[in-house]
Amino acid sequence: MQVSSVNDAKIYNLSHGKSLPEVSNITRRIELIQDFEMPTVCTSIKVSRDGHFILAAGTYKPRVRCYDTYQLSLKFERCLDSDVVAFDILSDDYSKLVFLHSDRYVEFHSQHGHYYKTRIPTFGRAFSYHYPSCDLFFVGTSSEVFRLNLEQGRFLNSLQTEAVENNVCDINPVHHLIATGSSEGRIECWDPRVRNRVGTLDCALSIQALPSVTALKFNNSLSMAVGTGSGQVLLYDLRSSQPLLVKDHFYNLPIKSLHFHDQLDLVMSADSKIIKMWNKDSGKVFSSIEPPANINDVCIYPQSGLLFTANEDPKMNIFYIPALGPAPRWCSFLDNLTEELEESPESTVYDDYKFVTRKDLENLGLSHLIGSSLLRAYMHGFFMDIRLYHKVKSMVNPFAYEEYRKDKIRQKIEEARTQRVQIKKLPKVNKELALKLMEDGEDEAVLARRTKKGKAVPNILSDDRFKVMFENPDYQVDEQSEEFRLLNPIVSKVGLKNKKKLRLLAQQMNEDEDEPEGQASSEEESSDDDKSWVEEVREQRRLLRQEDWERRRQERKNVDRNTVLLENPQFYQLKAGEEFRSFNDVTHKQKLQKASLEDRLKLEENSETSNMANTAVGSKQLTFTLQKSEQQRKQQQAEREHHEERKQLRRSAGHLSSRRGRGWGGRRGGRGRH
Asked: Region annotation Disordered: residue ranges (predicted)?
C-alpha cells in the first residue's frame, strides 16, 4: 500500500505494484479484491447500482470480469469476440449488460451469459440508455444518433445532428435531456419526447480554440460538465451559453472521464495522466492522483471515498481517500487501518530489511542461509531482516562501534588539518611519477595564469579514475624492465622539451620584444636533443643485448656445473616388443608441466626450438621450430627403409629378367641349326 498526501488529503493506493521484496508482501501488502487485474489492459470499469458487483472490460483476449464485493473475489469471466469500446449495466445487478464492440456489433448479456447480438450501421463510440422509453442511443462516426428500442426489439428513426462525427453522449437523470458532443466542439441537446433539437452550445467560442468534445456529464437538472480534447473542463448552466468555470489540466491531453461528488461539491476530471479533484464553484484544487500507468477510465464507488481506475496496465488501481467519504461496508476495515497508519509515524518500506550481497554473507558467516526463508533473492544480492543483520554483525565484530567511533574522530581531525598549511605528500606507490606529474602541473598552472587563456589541464593526481595507480602496488613502475629503459629516454626528452617550451613562453610574456637569436639557438638545441635521445636509446639497446648475453652464458655454466656423469653405468635388458625411453623422460615432463611459461621459453631457447628477437621499441618477436616426436622419427625411418628395399627388389627383378631372355634366345637358335 502506497500513501501520498496532496493538499493535506491522504490518498491510499491499495493496489500498489510489488516494489517490495516478497517477504514483506505477506505482512505489508493489502489485496482488497483478489485477482483484480486484466491479462494486458483494462479499458473501462463500472459499479452496479446495488454496489455488490464491479464489472471491468479489457483485453487481451477481449473479456469482461465481474467481481463480488462481499466475497472480495472474482465471480465470473466471459470472453468476447472483439474489443469493447463501451459497456453499461442496465439492471441493478449484473443480470443485464450491453457491450458496444469495435466491429460495430452490439452484444447483450443476461445472467447466464450471451443473449443476443446485433449490428449498427456505423462504428460506434459511445451510447446511453433512456430508461423511460427503453431506448439505446448510439453515437459514432456519422452525423446520425441511432436508436434501438429494447422493448420492441427494433431500430427506430435516428436523430440527425449537424455534426460530422459524434464522440460522446449523456442523458440528464432529472428531465432526460439527451446531449451529444461532436468532434467540432459543439454540444447538441435533444428532447426524446418529441425527437427535436432544443438547443446548441458551441464550446469553441469559450476557449477560443477548435477542440473536440471527449467527455460529457450531467450533474443535476441544470449543471453540465464538458471535457475537451485539449485538456480543458467547462462547467455550464443549461440556461446560459457561457461557461461558469473553465479548468485546465495543463497537459494538453483529452479529458477521458468526468464525475461529480455532491457531498463536497467537487468535480473529478481525468485525462490519461492525472485525476484532478477541484471545487466546482471556485476551481480550487482539492487533491490529485497520478497513477503509474496511463488512465483509460475512472469509476467512483457511490457514497464513499473509494474509486477505481482502468489503466494501460494489467493491474486495476484502487484508491481510498478518507477525505472524500468513509469506506464501503464490505471493506469497512480500511477506516481502522488508515487511522492506525495516521497515528504511527510513516517509514519507508525497506526500513525493516537490509540488502546484503553474497560477499557480505561470507563475511558474516551466513552463506549457509542462501536458499532458506531468511534470505530472499533480489537483484544481485539478498534481503534479510534488519534485526537478524544487527545481531549477527554484533556477534561477528563486537568492536564495530569502537572502530566506527575512531573513524569519526579521525575524520574530524583530518577536517581540522585541512585548514592548516598544506605540505606536499607523495603517495606510497610510484613516488617518482607522482613528483614528476606534480612539477608538470605547477608549470602548466603558472603558464595558464600568465597567459590568461583558460584553465590548466587537470592533473592526474587529482583525478579519481587514476588514484589506484598510486595506491595499488601492482601498478608500480619497474624501472629495471627492458620496456622502461627503452622508452624512458624518449619520454624524458619529451618532458624536457615541454619544460623548455613553457620557459620560453614565460619569457616571451615577460619580455616586450622578441629576439631572433634566441629562436635560432632553440632550434639548434632541439636538433641536438633529437640526436642525444637517439644515441641514448642505442646505448640502452647495446646494454640490454650485453646483459642478455651474460645471462645466457651464466645459465650455460650452471647447466654444465649441474651435469653429472654416471661412473658405473648399469645395463638393462629390454623385453620383446618394448621401446626404449629415457629414464628421466617422465620426471622431465613433470618438471615442464610445473614450470612457468618464462622457464619453458628459456629451455626452448637453449634447445634452439625458439628464438626471441627485439623488433620495435618495447616489443618482442618469438619464432618457434616444431620438434618431431620419437614416434614420428621412427615412422619416417621405417618409410625410408621400406622405400630402399623396394628399389633393390626392382633392380634385382630387372637383372633376372634380362638374363632369362638371353638364355631362351640361345636355345632357339641352337634348335634351328639342328
From this structure: 509-535, 603-674
Tell me how far apart the alpha carbons of residues 222 and 200 are, in angstroms, rounded to a whole number.
15
Please name the residue that has the C-alpha cell 590568461: 452
| Pairwise CA distance, residues 187 & 196, whole Å | 14
Cell 592533473, located at residue: 459
Spatial contact of 78 and 109, defined as CB atoms under 8 Å apart = yes
β partners of residue 610: 624
CATH 2.130.10.10 domain residues, the chain? 2-343
Say if strands 353-356 and 317-320 run parallel, antiparallel, or are unpaired: unpaired
- Report the distance separating Cα 510 and Cα 13, nearest Å: 72
The DSSP secondary structure of 601-658, one letter per residue, reads HHHHHHTTSEEEEE-STT-EEEEE-PPPPHHHHHHHHHHHHHHHHHHHHHHHHHHHHH
Closest to 226 in 3D by CA, of 169, 277, 266, 272: 169
* Distance separating alpha carbons of residues 264 and 566, to the nearest angstrom: 114
Tally of CB atoms within 10 A around 100: 22
Within the chain, which residues score under 70 in pLDDT? 1, 7-8, 16-29, 341-351, 418-426, 440-461, 485-533, 559-590, 605-622, 624-631, 654-674
Q: Give the Cα separation of 378 and 272 in Å (integer).
A: 32
Burial 358-370 (b: 16+ CB within 10 A, else e): eebbeebebeebe
Output the furthest CA–CA distance in the chain (Å, rounded). 161
Instruction: Give me 205's grid cell.
Output: 467560442
Write out pLDDT tens, residues 286-322: 999 988 889 999 999 998 999 999 999 998 999 999 8
Tally Cβ neighbours within 10 Å of residue 33. 21
Give the containing element (helix H, strand E) for 518: helix 516-562
Give 3's contacts (C-beta < 8 A, 6+ positions apart): 10, 11, 12, 13, 341, 346
d(CA 198, CA 239): 12
Q: Is the dihedral of CA 404, 406, 408, 414 positive or negative?
A: negative
Q: pLDDT tens across 583-631, in order?
A: 555 566 667 777 777 777 777 766 656 666 665 555 666 676 665 566 6
> What is the architecture of the domain spanning 2-343?
7 Propeller (2.130)
Residue from 177, 176, 179, 161 nearest 215 by CA: 179
